Amino acid sequence: MNPYVSVIIPTYNRINTISNTIDSVLAQTYRDYEIIIIDDNSNDNTKDIIDRYVQRYQFITYHKHTTNKGGSGARNTGAKLAKGTFLSFLDSDDQWIDTKLEKEVACLKNDSTIDMLYSNMYLVDVEKRTTTLYRQDEYEDKYYGMLCKNIIGSTSLITIKKKVFDSVGGFKEGLPSCQDWDFYLNVAREYKIIKIDEPLLKYYIHSNSISGNMDKAIAGHRLILEKVSNLISDNETYIKRKNNILSNQYLNIANIYMKFRKFNEAKVYYFRAFKYYPLNKSAFKNLISMLLGENLYYKLKYK
């Protein structure tokens, strides 16, 4: 009999974290799952760690790419191999709360119309050694929310029907960043998504992650901006909210520049966000604050 959930773990050179990730799945209170580990052509000893689990547990399988295809490619490979009705993804440096699958499966079995779900999460900053509860903004219309911003976050949060994953073509490979957001847009456009309003993931922040690489982050967000512009251009429902949506898109890019303290670049995008939708409070607040000058702005913001 096939498992109800296929847990897909993409990995690349994660010898120091992969064990904790796998252990967090093995600690799940819900047991009807398989684990598929996709090694994206690691060149460290990650395989040696995984082999110990494969030898011990029959429901864990390991597959290695002969070339590096990136996280999206690894997830797509895992999905092709999956036997479960649902797919659940987990990055090899993150960890699940032990009741994650139990609570998700309960929701899915209670409402068969749900196509994908996600939850809140804990943000674990490795360098600062801090853990913070993160709750995503709530949008009744998940597609509208996704047009404005990535209202979900990490793929380690989601569980999705395999047939839905296949129908949208999986993850787009080759994007510099925002692969998750691109995928969520495709799902939200046609399918039902719900949120479990409690933290079921520990998401680890590292300095070498894509989210910590400004050039890749900006490039990915600009591609999302282009995609969103195209999506709303022929949609009568959302074309009416075009200015608000694009204002939020520019705000997203401005916030990335601010994260890396690129004051002048951020000011350009905060201005665009305000210009498109003057009622965008965050854009207005940041733009006005920037009139104080760079030094005073940062003193007030980070004091």
From TrEMBL:
Q: Which GO terms describe its molecular function?
A: hexosyltransferase activity
Q: Show the Pfam families listed in the entry.
A: Glycos_transf_2 (PF00535)
Task: List each coiled-coil range.
Answer: none
Per UniProt, which keywords does this protein have?
TPR repeat
InterPro entries in alphabetical order: Glyco_trans_2-like (IPR001173), Nucleotide-diphossugar_trans (IPR029044), TPR-like_helical_dom_sf (IPR011990), TPR_rpt (IPR019734)
Domain of life where this protein originates: Bacteria
TPR-type repeats, residues: 247-280
Enumerate the spans annotated as Glycosyltransferase 2-like domain: 6-128
Name of the protein in question: Glycosyltransferase 2-like domain-containing protein
Which species? Clostridium fungisolvens
